[in-house]
Specification:
The chain is built from 10 helices and 11 strands. It is of the alpha/beta class. Among the domains are: 31-114, Rossmann fold; 141-255, 3-Layer(aba) Sandwich (Rossmann fold), CATH 3.40.50.720. Strands 1-11-8-7-5-6 form a 6-stranded parallel sheet. A 3-stranded parallel sheet has the order 3-2-4, sandwiched between helices. The longest helix is centred in the first third of the chain and has 23 residues, at 8-30. The protein binds NADP nicotinamide-adenine-dinucleotide phosphate.
Length: 298
């Protein structure tokens, strides 16, 4: 029997429906709504589409839209000033600086202007430190989306052997941390790993974020493993992932399709982070102990 399809569109939609209700309830209780500031520098067409999708999804969820657009020639100081303004603006719960930035701008010091409590992308050094230490904080969206998909299977992560293929700061590393916090036994593989199939065949949970189309085939997968494909590649035949779906589907117990797997989860987790950030900021302002941000046992 083939694997069950882990449908990211369905999981994302049900989380967004619940979030929309939660935001509406919070508004009726407190009179406040979360606000998301997206900052787009330059006119890269792909970035324009991504930012447009994020703004549309957040507005649909009941989140206030604070968009800032700067020209491609904006200086480091100008971008920094915009981020600092947003950091100080109390109606802005979350700030997202769309990457990559135009050549000549250095993202690292700019990201550091975003305070941890507004870092809805979870990528600043402060957020990374909180994640690594298992302290409450906002977590990066794609790795959180993978965890939400695993939760949707109903399979317990504790004690399972999880193999993450890829060690990027955006996906592989934070995902390994999140899996550890769920008490999985975690192995990280990367481009220098010797005998990749030997490693991945030990996985109960295999998450592939290598950015190599079709890297993982039947020979890499243990029977009944859960396989999550983060990779996404545009080919002449359409979008494909890092996993050879047709082969692996025969062996795995659950598998994510591409498209329609991890992709739809990323924006959903951004919206959830924005609401979490908002509640935390409001509760801190009125002196109620802040409800725990996503924490040790996520
Ligand atoms: P990345 O920064 O290029 O990192 C790729 C990682 O995979 C690196 O750690 C690299 O190892 C490792 N790797 C490369 N070739 C390998 C191989 N042959 N065997 C084992 N490991 C290998 O990419 P990323 O940003 O993490 O993204 C990974 C993929 O996910 C991309 O396809 C990207 O488009 C996709 N993505 C999707 C979403 C979504 O929302 N669906 C979000 C983010 C990313 P080294 O460290 O040794 O170089």
């Amino acid at each position: 029997m083939g694997a069950r399809i882990l449908d990211g569109r369905q999981v994302a939609q049900s989380r967004r429906d619940r979030l929309e209700k939660d935001i509406a309830n919070y508004k009726s209780m407190t009179g406040t709504v979360p606000g998301l500031a997206t900052v787009l520098v330059g006119d890269d067409p792909a970035s324009e589409v991504y930012v447009g999708n994020k703004r549309k999804a957040s507005t649909q969820a009941g989140i206030r839209d604070f968009h800032r657009r700067l020209p491609a020639g904006a200086s480091q100081a100008e971008v920094k000033a915009v981020l600092a303004d947003l950091a100080a603006e109390s109606d802005v719960s979350g700030i997202l600086l769309q990457l990559p930035l135009p050549a000549g701008l250095d993202p690292t010091p700019l990201l550091e202007v975003i305070p941890a409590e507004k870092d809805v992308d979870g990528l600043t050094a402060a957020s990374v430190a909180l994640l690594t230490q298992g302290l409450p904080g906002l977590r990066p969206c794609t790795p959180s989306g993978v965890i939400a998909l695993l939760d949707a299977t109903g399979v317990e992560m504790e004690g399972k052997h999880a193999v993450v293929v890829g060690r990027s700061e955006l996906v592989g590393r934070p995902l390994a941390q999140l899996l550890l916090q769920r008490h999985a036994t975690v192995t990280i593989a990367h481009s220098r790993t010797i005998d990749l199939p030997g490693i991945t065949c030990g996985a109960d949970i295999l998450v592939v974020a290598a950015g190599v189309p079709g890297l993982i085939g039947a020979e890499h997968v243990k029977k009944d493993a859960i396989v999550i494909d983060v990779g996404i590649h545009r080919t002449r035949g359409g979008l494909v992932g890092d996993v050879k779906f047709d082969e692996v589907e025969e062996i795995a117990s659950w598998i994510t399709p591409v498209p329609g797997g991890v992709g739809p989860m990323t924006i959903t987790m951004l919206l959830e982070n924005t609401f979490t950030a908002h509640k935390m900021q409001k509760e801190a302002t009125v002196g109620i102990a802040a409800s725990p941000m996503v924490s040790h046992h996520e």
